[in-house]
Amino acid sequence: MLLKLHFSLLLFFSVSVVLGSRSSSVEFQYLNVKSNKFDVNDSQLLHTLNFSNGHRLVTGRKSNHTKFKLKLVHRDKLPHIHGQHQGFDERIKRDVKRVATLVRRLSRDDTTTSVVEDNSYKVANFGTGVISGMEEGSGEYFVRIGVGSPPRSQYMVIDSGSDIVWVQCQPCRQCYQQSDPVFNPAESTSYTGVSCGSAICDRLENAGCHSGRCRYEVSYGDGSYTKGTLALETLTIGEVTVRDMAIGCGHTNQGMFIGAAGLLGLGGGSMSFVGQLGGQTGGAFSYCLVSRGIGSTGTLDFGRGAMPVGATWISLVRNPNAPSFYYIGLAGVGVGGIKVPIPEETFQLTEYGTNGVVMDTGTAVTRLPTAAYVAFRDSFTALTSNLPRAPGVSIFDTCYNLNGFESVRVPTVSFYFSDGPVLTLPANNFLIPVDSAGTFCFAFAPSPSGLSIIGNIQQGGIQISFDGANGFVGFGPNIC
Known about the structure:
By secondary structure, the protein is mainly beta.
């Protein structure tokens, strides 16, 4: 008989073993429209994990290190830059540019740094608060860290698809507005410029040289960019001090990083924050992004101690052409507990390193190849015919007028992974408000290519962990 494990993603993950076949009845859940939270109905909100052929579920990684976590920071405390606030339309425009950039980068070998490994940076486990950047117009997430000695507190955008750490620096020839004073390296006793002939400079793909100092340049798909000098600097994460971190000191910057001082790259490359931490963390980190309508803060933790016991783990998929990105094996999508009939090869990485499925914190809306998206959407609309429709909004073609509703009954939406697990999303991770008039839209869109991207709206509120050394990504066991 088929072995099945069940857990809920509402208030907790509850794991139990039952025998028998999966019910063919349609699964529904409730979206609380006014508060954009769940109405809990345990009998209808079970999440199913199917395993066969002796597949082993990895339920966490033991660690001798102590997990360290900072006090959470409320997103409302991020100082608002007057005149820089952007609405829904601007955020979606930026998201479209982000996706276009990923499609360009992942359709060829176009990484921004080399893959030279260096495990010289050793630190203990530590953590920091993560706050939503959507209200500040960046569409990203921020952490608060200290830069330099003495440490100067700065807000940094986190990005799982980037491989460099950088901050805006004085003297600033061109800088955008940020919440904190621009970092001045002349006031830091730990700042050291990197010479052109150093091994660290060689690790940058777009390195240059000026007056004997290593120069860097990073461009982003939305037109944002940063240019400056590469340096070794001390970063302070809560009570943990990380010395000699290679960072970009940006003297010429432009872009959509409103409020943030710079960017903390969490990609899989050697120059990212995760890569530079090296053997002590083993590429292990965990985040819980702000869940829309449920909470105001999340967490970002690094190290073995951050790996939760009881999580459901699936394998990372390696793409030699894009080692910085986190690919996963997606076998399909489901609506109402029923798998949508989409060929599994639609989501597979090709031998040329194209297509596949990337998890990305910088993309808001999940993208699926057009044919897969249409089948997925049609399955959803077939089970929501009782809800009043609204005109499409921006990139969303499936919207509903929920004005006046307290809550609505909607079918479950799930990701089927190649390893066996099925991840059923909270309702507010796929039906989101897009205006103040009660319009909610199905938060998925077609991809302009064969690449699929799991965005941060769908990841919101779920504890997600990356174990780079062992090649796993984990979900749960708790929501934010």
